[in-house]
Amino acid sequence: MDYDIDTSAPETKAGFASAERDAHDELMRTHDEFKAANDERLAALERRRGDVLLEEKVDRISDAIDLRLKRIEDYALKQARPQLDGRRAESFAGSREHKSAFEAYVRCGDAAPLRAIETKAMSIGSNPDGGYLVPVELEHAIAQRLTAISPIRAIASVREISGSIYKKPFMTTGPATGWVGETDARTQTNSPTLDALSFPAMELYAMPAATATLLDDSAVNIDEWIASEVELTFAVQEGAAFVSGDGVNKPKGFLAATAVANGSWSWGNLGYIATGTAGAFPASNPSDVLVDLIYALKAGYRQNGAFVMNRKTQAAIRKFKDTSGSYLWQPPAQAGGRASLMTFPLVEAEDMPDITASSLSIAFGDFRRGYLIVDRQGVRVLRDPYSAKPYVLFYTTKRVGGGVQDFDAIKLLKFAVS
Q1: Which domains, from first to last, does the chain contain?
Q2: pTM score of the predicted model
């Protein structure tokens, strides 16, 4: 059977519901074929008659599942793209004037109307050298698109700030408390000790290029064009930083935190569970380590837990079964949903490392409580018609920060002996 499919994203929103349902139905059929082929492979292994052709068939169908999942994600992304027309702008005070001025600047380089608006609003940090703030509806559209395609942003907490840094206080020691009788003496309670986590917002940029013909075409929605051009660049850079960023001129990823054995966990570190085998799952009962990982998390976090891993790791886990013979990995229950692993949502983040010796290839936790993303208000655009003639460059910047905010909410699986 041919498992190649058309992975191109749809161009319009017409027929999205039926197209997405069809893509989901294809995924379910392919998953049924995967289970049948993998059962046949396992039966051959039990007879000690491994079949290379069966192995290749299972891998080929597994790749087809990944492609179909990608196609469903593309439909979801297209649906997340709002139409940025005049009717939407009316819901924002003064934004129609800003939108008109911004379009004049992008198309023709006329900065005077934008300069007048931002001077009237007493904006800071927006000037001919640093660029001009985009209309608020375009800023919201970029944020909405990033949430749809940036895997960690979709499950983490996101906070909007107006300054360059966000500080979150937390208690290192709380006040003394206890139970006492009605007439017993009460000892004086100690004051809580507070500390703060800092989340600086770093500059992220993209530089799409346009031709003069595109800018002269009045039928082209400039807001929509800019949002679509920068979304992928922003999402790719964010995705890598939120996972493994070192915190130098970028957010600090959760894998950049110090990882310690979960039995030795302390605040400021992330706990890990070892698989017991270097660079692999255990040969027998490999899914047991996933159970250990789930229950390493406290119940208050576990109820909102999600797995995070890349496509290759997901492909390895897709072959696992429980004691009753049911597959642990399940496709989305409905169109637009997420695949699940042991009933928990599974988030595919390609920036997670492949399975190698001592790699931290799987994360599980309540990322809404565990990881914080800070967005500084405002997206800026600087028009540059000189550096790459005959193209016009649009230097687009936004400020983003991130880091672990609750070190008890995320656990890691380490592919190592201990």
Answers
A1: 80-171+194-310+349-418 (3.30.2400.10)
A2: 0.80
